[in-house]
Amino acid sequence: MKNEGNEAAGTRVPIRLSMDDPQPMYRQIESQLRDFILSGQLPPGTKLPSVRALAKDLACSVITTRRAYQDLEGAGFIRTRQGMGTVVAELAQDTLSRHRREPVEEAFGHAVQAGRRAGFSEGELRAVFEETLEKSRQEQGVKP
């Protein structure tokens, strides 16, 4: 499934669901909303689509969207108030930093493990990291 954007109360939430993704749909919704919140694309106070409106836009079950919203609310990313809807929560700076850092550390951890299994030294791992970072800079047109 592909969705270009969901709108409610003027908020555009470009969630894309994939049947090929091994993650359940509620996790796909949750992780994409979390990424939008952490990146600042959905700032604190932003009104989100209702559970029903999001389910309709994504052509999925209300149970699916409700589960994603419940998980995000449990983690403190969103707040829901009866009769007022769901909004992006204000996150403390240390919490925001921690949530932004965790997936990067996890990815680096997996990369280091793969490198160690392949017999790379720490110096070789650092060189691969620097080369990868430089390649990314060039592809994105970012100056060092």
Description:
The protein is mainly alpha-helical and 144 residues long. The chain folds into two domains: 6-88, Arc Repressor Mutant, subunit A; 93-140. 56% of the residues lie in helices and 11% in strands. The strands form two sheets. A three-stranded antiparallel sheet has the order 3-5-4. The chain has a two-stranded antiparallel sheet with strand order 1-2. The protein is elongated. 18% of the residues are buried.
Question: What's the helix and strand layout?
Answer:
Layout: E1 6-8, E2 11-13, H1 25-39, E3 47-48, H2 51-58, H3 62-74, E4 78-81, E5 85-88, H4 93-117, H5 122-140
Content of β-strand: 5-15%
The percent range for helix content is 55-70%
Going by helix content, strand content and strand pairing, the class is: mainly alpha
Largest sheet: spatial strand order: 3-5-4
CATH architecture of the largest domain: Orthogonal Bundle
Distance between the termini: 37 Å
Labels describing this entry:
144 residues, mainly alpha, Arc Repressor Mutant, subunit A, three-stranded antiparallel β-sheet, two-stranded antiparallel sheet, 5 strands, 11% strand, elongated, disordered N terminus
Question: Would you kindly provide a brief summary of this structure?
Answer:
This protein is mainly alpha-helical. It is 56% helix and 11% strand. The strands form 2 sheets. The protein has a 3-stranded antiparallel sheet. Strands 1-2 form a two-stranded antiparallel sheet.
